[in-house]
Protein backbone atom coordinates (compact mmCIF):
# COMPACT_ATOMS: atom_id res chain seq x y z
CA UNK A 1 0.00 0.00 0.00
CA UNK A 2 1.41 3.40 -0.97
CA UNK A 3 1.53 6.31 1.47
CA UNK A 4 -1.19 8.03 -0.56
CA UNK A 5 -3.41 4.93 -0.19
CA UNK A 6 -2.70 4.80 3.57
CA UNK A 7 -3.72 8.44 3.93
CA UNK A 8 -6.96 8.13 1.97
CA UNK A 9 -7.84 4.90 3.81
CA UNK A 10 -7.28 6.65 7.15
CA UNK A 11 -9.36 9.65 6.08
CA UNK A 12 -12.15 7.42 4.77
CA UNK A 13 -12.12 5.36 7.97
CA UNK A 14 -12.70 8.58 9.95
CA UNK A 15 -15.23 9.93 7.44
CA UNK A 16 -13.10 13.03 7.04
CA UNK A 17 -14.03 15.93 4.78
CA UNK A 18 -11.28 16.02 2.14
CA UNK A 19 -10.55 16.23 -1.53
CA UNK A 20 -7.61 15.15 -3.67
CA UNK A 21 -5.98 17.60 -6.08
CA UNK A 22 -3.59 16.42 -8.79
CA UNK A 23 -0.93 18.81 -10.12
CA UNK A 24 2.61 19.00 -11.43
CA UNK A 25 5.23 17.35 -9.20
CA UNK A 26 6.48 20.30 -7.14
CA UNK A 27 7.99 20.04 -3.69
CA UNK A 28 8.16 23.73 -2.80
CA UNK A 29 5.51 24.96 -0.38
CA UNK A 30 5.21 28.50 -1.72
CA UNK A 31 5.04 27.43 -5.38
CA UNK A 32 2.58 24.58 -4.86
CA UNK A 33 0.37 26.73 -2.61
CA UNK A 34 0.04 29.24 -5.42
CA UNK A 35 -0.83 26.48 -7.91
CA UNK A 36 -3.39 24.90 -5.55
CA UNK A 37 -4.84 28.31 -4.66
CA UNK A 38 -4.42 27.97 -0.88
CA UNK A 39 -3.06 30.57 1.52
CA UNK A 40 0.52 29.84 2.56
CA UNK A 41 -0.46 29.51 6.24
CA UNK A 42 -2.84 26.65 5.27
CA UNK A 43 0.01 24.56 3.85
CA UNK A 44 1.33 21.89 6.20
CA UNK A 45 5.12 21.65 5.84
CA UNK A 46 6.45 18.35 7.16
CA UNK A 47 10.02 18.14 8.45
CA UNK A 48 11.75 15.13 9.89
CA UNK A 49 13.98 15.95 12.85
CA UNK A 50 16.45 13.96 14.90
CA UNK A 51 16.04 14.89 18.56
CA UNK A 52 18.81 14.59 21.15
CA UNK A 53 17.33 13.24 24.37
CA UNK A 54 18.64 14.02 27.88
CA UNK A 55 21.15 11.96 29.83
CA UNK A 56 22.52 9.85 27.03
CA UNK A 57 19.18 8.35 25.97
CA UNK A 58 18.93 7.28 22.33
CA UNK A 59 17.93 9.97 19.85
CA UNK A 60 14.30 10.03 18.76
CA UNK A 61 12.75 11.09 15.47
CA UNK A 62 10.07 13.72 15.17
CA UNK A 63 7.77 14.57 12.29
CA UNK A 64 7.25 18.31 12.81
CA UNK A 65 4.38 19.96 10.95
CA UNK A 66 4.46 23.74 10.60
CA UNK A 67 2.47 26.28 8.56
CA UNK A 68 3.90 27.17 5.16
CA UNK A 69 4.57 30.74 6.27
CA UNK A 70 6.66 29.63 9.26
CA UNK A 71 9.97 27.97 9.96
CA UNK A 72 10.72 25.27 12.51
CA UNK A 73 11.89 26.28 15.99
CA UNK A 74 14.34 23.44 16.59
CA UNK A 75 14.60 23.90 20.37
CA UNK A 76 10.82 24.08 20.87
CA UNK A 77 10.31 21.04 18.65
CA UNK A 78 12.81 19.03 20.70
CA UNK A 79 11.19 20.09 23.97
CA UNK A 80 7.77 19.04 22.63
CA UNK A 81 8.88 15.40 22.96
CA UNK A 82 11.14 15.81 26.01
CA UNK A 83 14.37 16.39 24.10
CA UNK A 84 17.18 18.90 24.46
CA UNK A 85 17.87 19.92 20.87
CA UNK A 86 17.02 18.86 17.34
CA UNK A 87 18.32 19.06 13.80
CA UNK A 88 17.16 17.83 10.43
CA UNK A 89 17.39 14.06 10.04
CA UNK A 90 19.42 12.79 7.12
CA UNK A 91 17.48 12.54 3.85
CA UNK A 92 18.04 8.77 3.91
CA UNK A 93 16.53 8.43 7.39
CA UNK A 94 13.66 10.74 6.48
CA UNK A 95 12.81 8.62 3.45
CA UNK A 96 13.17 5.37 5.42
CA UNK A 97 10.79 6.55 8.17
CA UNK A 98 8.21 8.22 5.92
CA UNK A 99 8.45 6.12 2.74
CA UNK A 100 8.28 9.43 0.84
CA UNK A 101 10.61 11.61 -1.15
CA UNK A 102 11.38 15.00 0.38
CA UNK A 103 8.59 17.46 -0.38
CA UNK A 104 5.92 14.76 -0.46
CA UNK A 105 5.83 13.90 3.27
CA UNK A 106 2.28 14.18 4.64
CA UNK A 107 1.36 15.37 8.15
CA UNK A 108 0.76 11.82 9.37
CA UNK A 109 3.15 9.32 10.92
CA UNK A 110 2.75 5.71 9.85
CA UNK A 111 5.89 4.55 11.70
CA UNK A 112 5.90 3.99 15.47
CA UNK A 113 9.49 5.33 15.65
CA UNK A 114 8.29 8.70 14.39
CA UNK A 115 6.64 11.03 16.92
CA UNK A 116 4.26 13.66 15.50
CA UNK A 117 3.93 17.28 16.63
CA UNK A 118 1.87 19.92 14.84
CA UNK A 119 2.23 23.64 15.34
CA UNK A 120 -0.82 25.03 17.13
CA UNK A 121 -1.24 27.77 14.48
CA UNK A 122 -2.60 25.14 12.10
CA UNK A 123 -5.69 24.65 14.29
CA UNK A 124 -7.06 27.96 13.00
CA UNK A 125 -6.64 27.56 9.21
CA UNK A 126 -9.99 25.98 8.32
CA UNK A 127 -8.60 23.76 5.57
CA UNK A 128 -5.22 22.07 5.75
CA UNK A 129 -3.36 21.50 2.47
CA UNK A 130 -0.52 19.00 2.10
CA UNK A 131 1.31 16.81 -0.37
CA UNK A 132 -0.06 13.34 0.08
CA UNK A 133 2.88 10.98 -0.16
CA UNK A 134 3.52 11.90 -3.79
CA UNK A 135 4.74 15.17 -5.27
CA UNK A 136 1.89 15.25 -7.80
CA UNK A 137 -0.97 14.73 -5.32
CA UNK A 138 -2.24 17.05 -2.62
CA UNK A 139 -5.09 16.78 -0.19
CA UNK A 140 -7.30 19.56 1.16
CA UNK A 141 -8.58 18.40 4.56
CA UNK A 142 -10.90 20.06 7.06
CA UNK A 143 -8.56 20.98 9.91
CA UNK A 144 -11.06 19.81 12.55
CA UNK A 145 -11.01 16.35 10.96
CA UNK A 146 -7.20 16.35 10.91
CA UNK A 147 -6.94 17.06 14.64
CA UNK A 148 -9.70 14.56 15.36
CA UNK A 149 -7.53 11.91 13.68
CA UNK A 150 -4.09 12.83 15.07
CA UNK A 151 -5.30 14.02 18.49
CA UNK A 152 -4.98 17.32 20.32
CA UNK A 153 -1.94 15.94 22.22
CA UNK A 154 0.06 16.43 19.00
CA UNK A 155 -0.32 20.23 19.21
CA UNK A 156 2.71 22.25 20.30
CA UNK A 157 4.29 25.65 19.72
CA UNK A 158 7.07 24.51 17.36
CA UNK A 159 7.17 27.19 14.64
CA UNK A 160 8.28 30.77 14.19
CA UNK A 161 6.74 33.06 11.57
CA UNK A 162 9.14 33.92 8.75
CA UNK A 163 10.13 37.54 8.45
CA UNK A 164 8.89 39.15 5.25
CA UNK A 165 11.56 41.06 3.39
CA UNK A 166 10.77 43.78 0.89
Structure description:
- The chain is an alpha+beta fold and 166 residues long.
- The chain has one domain (3-161): YbaK/aminoacyl-tRNA synthetase-associated domain (YbaK protein).
- The chain is built from five helices and ten strands; from the N terminus they run αβαβββαβαβββαββ.
- The protein has helices spanning 3-13, 29-36, 74-79, 91-98, 143-150; strands spanning 18-22, 44-52, 60-67, 70-72, 85-88, 114-119, 127-134, 137-142, 155-156, 159-161.
- The strands form three sheets. The chain has a five-stranded mixed beta sheet. Strands 1-8-7 form a three-stranded antiparallel beta sheet. Strands 4-10 form a two-stranded antiparallel sheet.
- A hairpin with a 2-residue loop joins strand 7 and strand 8.
- It starts with a helix and ends in a 5-residue tail after the last strand.
- 36% of the residues are buried.
- The mean pLDDT is 93.
What is the structure about, briefly put?
With 166 residues, this protein is of the alpha+beta class. The chain has helices at 3-13, 29-36, 74-79, 91-98, 143-150; strands at 18-22, 44-52, 60-67, 70-72, 85-88, 114-119, 127-134, 137-142, 155-156, 159-161.
Write the layout of secondary structure elements.
Blueprint: H1 3-13, E1 18-22, H2 29-36, E2 44-52, E3 60-67, E4 70-72, H3 74-79, E5 85-88, H4 91-98, E6 114-119, E7 127-134, E8 137-142, H5 143-150, E9 155-156, E10 159-161
Parallel strand pairs: 3-6, 6-9
Antiparallel strand pairs: 1-8, 2-3, 2-5, 4-10, 7-8
First-to-last CA distance: 45 Å
Let me know the average pLDDT: 93
Radius of gyration from the alpha-carbon trace, in angstroms: 15 Å
- The percentage of residues in β strands lies in 25-35%
Amino acid sequence: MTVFEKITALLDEHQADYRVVEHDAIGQTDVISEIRGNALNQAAKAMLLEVTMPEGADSRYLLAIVPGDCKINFKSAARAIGGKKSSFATPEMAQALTQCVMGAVPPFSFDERLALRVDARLQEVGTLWFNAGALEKSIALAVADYFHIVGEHCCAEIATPMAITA
